UniProtKB/TrEMBL annotation:
One term of GO molecular function: DNA-binding transcription factor activity
Native organism: Microbispora bryophytorum
Name used for this protein in its record: Transcriptional regulator
Domain HTH merR-type: 1-69
Keyword rRNA processing annotated: no
Keyword DNA-binding: yes
Keywords, alphabetical: DNA-binding
Length: 334
């Protein structure tokens, strides 16, 4: 079969067939009387083998080794191809993500594009200082790729940089919340905790709704962070978790402050007082926890609290009794 016929049947151009021949990959076994190349069925089969191996990503040199080296084993080469393909996919995915972020920033011109690219590069820098400066400047320098800020906040380990990223996210509104919501469900504890910290700094009802959901998170640290944030937002759902924190001695001062803030709403006062008094009445609460609960009553107004303090002033635990007596004195002086 002449080269033109082979090209039509195989789909490999005559030029490429000549290139294969120059590399020694395939040589026509005969010549016609006129001196034209003639390919046998075995030659054509080899051409199809070459194309099949090329489709896997092998170079022409690797194809030659695979076909001509009797001792060639494909496993090592296939492993290399898998690794190279994964690296290529990762690089292409990273590029696609970067392009989407630039597009989401809605650049008005090439200056905006270049500025966004510079910001993305700075956010990925190994230097904590560069990452922090990028976060602080992001809200001041035009379009902000909020997804990039959210992803950076979920992965940032430096506390100063993390604070700057949360600040930048809060200034960007609630557009980063979907990605932060995914972070709440991460199998990695640190990612979950960074997510709730970031959400806590974003104002608005959408962030508050996510914090309410976080109160039932399996991660106790996430639940506590959500409760503290909800307390400052006046959400009474946080009360049980805040009281748990006081009992457990986990950020108990902050939890008591959050309860005090919630108690400024008369609708929540009785719930808070009843919750604290109920815990004090339980026999399984340790002495140190009872003292913290008594101290937490200090800023809770209402008759329920006053009655509880009067009872506690006669408590068997002297520290509890003295604290309750002192708090009653303060309430009487007000």
């Amino acid at each position: 079969m002449l080269i033109g016929d082979v090209a039509r049947r195989s789909g490999v151009s005559a030029r490429m067939l000549r290139h294969y021949e120059s590399l020694g990959l395939v040589r026509p076994t005969g010549r016609s009387e006129a001196g034209y190349r003639e390919y046998s069925s075995e030659d054509i089969r080899r051409i199809f083998h070459i194309e099949s191996l090329r489709s896997l990503g092998l170079s022409l040199r690797e194809v030659g080794l695979a076909l001509d080296d009797p001792g060639f084993t494909p496993s090592g080469l296939v492993d290399d191809l898998i690794r190279q393909t994964r690296e290529r996919i990762a690089a292409e995915t990273e590029l696609l993500t970067r392009l989407r972020r630039i597009d989401a920033a809605e650049p008005a011109g090439w200056e905006d594009v270049l500025r966004t690219v510079a910001l993305l590069q700075a956010l990925g820098s190994e230097s904590a200082g560069k990452r922090q400066r990028a976060a602080l400047s992001s809200a001041e320098e035009g379009p902000v790729p909020v997804e990039a800020l959210a992803e950076a906040a979920l992965s940032e380990t430096d506390p100063n940089v993390a604070g700057a990223l949360r600040w930048a996210l809060a200034r960007s509104g609630d557009t980063g919340l979907p990605l932060l919501a995914e972070g709440l469900g991460s199998p990695v504890a640190e990612v979950r905790r960074r997510a709730v910290q970031s959400i806590a700094e974003i104002p608005g009802g959408a962030a508050t709704a996510l914090l309410r959901q976080a109160l039932t998170n399996s991660d106790v640290v996430v639940r506590r962070s959500a409760a503290l944030a909800l307390g400052t937002r006046g959400v009474a759902n946080a009360v049980p978790t805040l009281i748990d924190m006081i009992v457990e001695g986990a950020n108990d001062v902050d939890a008591a402050d959050a309860l005090s803030a919630l108690a400024s709403d008369p609708a929540s006062t009785d719930q808070i007082a009843t919750g604290l008094v109920g815990r004090l009445a339980r026999g399984d609460v340790e002495a140190s926890a009872r003292r913290r609960l008594t101290q937490a009553l200090a800023d809770i107004p209402g008759t329920t609290t006053s009655r509880a303090l009067a009872d506690l002033s006669n408590d068997d635990d002297r520290a509890v009794a003295l604290t309750a007596t002192y708090l009653l004195t303060l309430r009487g002086a007000q």
